[in-house]
Amino acid sequence: MRLATWNVNSIRARQERVVDWLQRSQTDVLAMQEIKCKPEQFPLQAFTDAGYEVAVHGLNQWNGVAIASRVGLEDVQDHFENQPGFGKPGQDVVVEARALGATCGGVRVWSLYVPNGRGVADPHYAYKLAFLRELRAAATTWADVPTALVGDFNVAPRTEDIWSEADADAATHVTPEAREAFHAFEAAGFEELSRRYLPEPNTYTFWDYKQLRFPKAEGLRIDFIYGSQSLAERAVDVSIVRAERKGKGPSDHVPVVLDIDEAGAPL
Asked: Does the model's pTM come out above 0.70?
């Protein structure tokens, strides 16, 4: 089975590109982040015509997550236990559309869009840390079944995962607290699988649109695939599809792809 995660940065703007890649890559399950639409606005027909079922969780033109699968889509859940919400002072706290779980081909898949944090002095940063903390707490209850936590974690966990730690736009991605929260999933029984197959430095998954970041190779590695032990034992390969950052109208992120041995035997 082939499972991928991709922050598509508006599915309505990139539906043709995403569906075309799904078919060319023979991906069975795609977890999407930043779809930026409500369920009724999602271009469902294009995915249906390509043979995929889709679960969508979106509340407005921001955030939003979805899962497309051609190997089954069951037990859909639009939040995890104790998922924190966010609201500016004086506003209602809202549990945003940042997590979506579904069972696909016997694997429990969570599409995750971790809050950016905005700035270390911003309330959004505390929200980011709370989100990671509660996600890890929930993940401890999922570790005994084949589970994939995939998506845009908005954390560059190592120095080599960002072109420059002085990048002001990524200040909340490199703090000791954010990195500690990211690595805490390992203690919960999960392995970050892209590092197993792609250990080399400067293997980025995101390049900002501004200041020619992509041609300058000034990127970040912030999109990841965490697998529970029973899933990690079945991992065959992970790839980062850098070519999808090229061409007309790309997302600023690229797909990260996990190949899974369906037989379930340790490799």
From this structure: yes
